[in-house]
Amino acid sequence: MAEPRTETTQPIATIEIKKGLSRLAINPHGARIEELTLKGQKILTKVRRADLTQASTHPCIPIFGPETTTRFGIPQHGSARKKDFDVSIVEGHIILSQEIVDGQYPKGLSIRQVHSLSEEEYSLTTIVSNSSTEALPVNFAEHFYWDTPGGWGGLIINGKDVEDIVRRDGAIPALKGKNVIHIPLRREIILDAKGFSILQLWTGKNPEGKFDQHYVCIEPAEGNPAENFFGSKDSMIKPQQSRTTEIKISLQ
Question: Does residue 87 sit in helix, strand or coil?
Fold first, then answer.
């Protein structure tokens, strides 16, 4: 049965959708996913890091990582994650949008994210649009915080042990189709990421160098910040054009 069409643009502290044993909780401040559970298994989570930061999944826009080759004065991962997004709820889909105003970055860029949940799957479609008269550099990423209640030792992605890559804040190629994620004590997770070239792997650590174990960040990104993607020809969105990425998460 189709759900009735509903719309709202009212500010909401936390938006929650439940479908059977699946649950999605989103805070429009920073477009943060505070929890994703599929079929009773927690997938994404809100965490307290070793540096005492409260953290949760968020978009990185217009840049992923630090600014190195341009001089717009953008902080790491951009400021959108620290600002309120406009909210619409249409036929059960949560739609968040924001005009990007960040340092001296040129005006005209906007982001629109559509979050959807079924009992079987979570999906995120992100449209980044350029309404200006000049090409704008963009390296969009979704900074996922994955729940690892048994630690991330033995983390396997696409058949490869990636523990060491997490420790050195490294990246692996994002498969265009199905990325298979094995987290200890969890059912295998399928990450379908379209429009991304890498998965950046990371976790926090305390001043003594001890790594957090209760979460791991597996972050689909359009381009590799270590290769100075932001500002490159491939990062540019032409005037009056847009770029779309799609993410789907399900259980194996």
Answer: strand
